[in-house]
């Protein structure tokens, strides 16, 4: 545990031995005599380390509030454990608006039907792409039987957070802000007087955060790029405490890197659609854009392919929002084309 700002401590939880940007998460703790605040909980694999660190602080769990920025396994993986011990969870309920989420695998009643619809959106069905479909079903069985899947999140009770809600701990007055983009209902915290921002995964020091969805009409990448621009305008010069990587003091530079990165990716995806003589599904655009010939059958590698599908979906929807690509829906499946070619 180390102090990153007077009154704010942080500690890292590491998932794997080898380092990669998202295998380490930084959790922040604001401690007071009355209630204390922890931001996020880390991966379920790090449960013992988390409990050891929290036990060392001596903070009784019933005096602990936990602000969950968004419903991904590295942030909510231990929410159930902490809730069971008496801590109070806070999260934006919009994070659970779908029965099935393409990244976090909240496995719940209705999620299998929802998953079928989600996969159909991107062009994956049992008849059309049995190889990919079967891997998804294998993973489902794995989650259902043993909960043996690192992206699965155990259910937990939480109090709903709304935009503008104030959390006070000692002389910190933290306001919840909506950071739509990385996920639909992601939230961060700001202290306006101290000029501090907890940007959740909207900003990650060193890498460009993923904006992934497979639900249509949510316009996540559009919201994400707007949010990044808003952060650049409102919070330049503030100190930011991201959940992955070191604190950020130069918001403008990070915003530029992110906007530039997505502009290049969008251009790349656009070229695939532009070059095709026939309308393409998300799965087809993904395979061409990333040069994929064989779908990995090892589950952990398959996740990378799944992420590519969801990223490509977000970008295609953005290109549709920008009216440079046309989308047509047929039986729940989306086909993208260059409007100049298919009038
Ligand atoms: Zn994360």
Task: Tell me the layout of helices and strands.
Blueprint: E1 2-5, E2 8-14, E3 24-30, E4 36-39, H1 47-57, E5 64-67, H2 73-76, H3 79-84, E6 88-91, H4 111-121, H5 130-146, E7 159-160, E8 166-169, E9 172-178, E10 187-191, E11 196-198, H6 220-235, E12 239-240, H7 251-275, H8 282-290, H9 299-321, E13 326-330, E14 333-337
Parallel strand pairs: 4-5, 5-6, 6-7, 11-12
Antiparallel strand pairs: 1-2, 2-3, 3-4, 8-9, 9-10, 10-11, 13-14
Short description:
This protein is an alpha/beta fold and 343 residues long.
Terminal Cα separation, in Å?
61 Å
Q: Fill in the CATH topology of the largest domain.
A: Metallo-beta-lactamase, Chain A
Bound molecules: zinc ion
Whole-number total of structural domains: 3
Provide the β-strand percentage band: 15-25%
Strand order of the largest sheet: 1-2-3-4-5-6-7
Overall 3D form: globular
Q: Regarding CATH, which class of the largest domain? A: Alpha Beta
User: H/E element string?
Assistant: EEEEHEHHEHHEEEEEHEHHHEE
Secondary-structure arrangement, i.e. CATH architecture of the largest domain: 4-Layer Sandwich
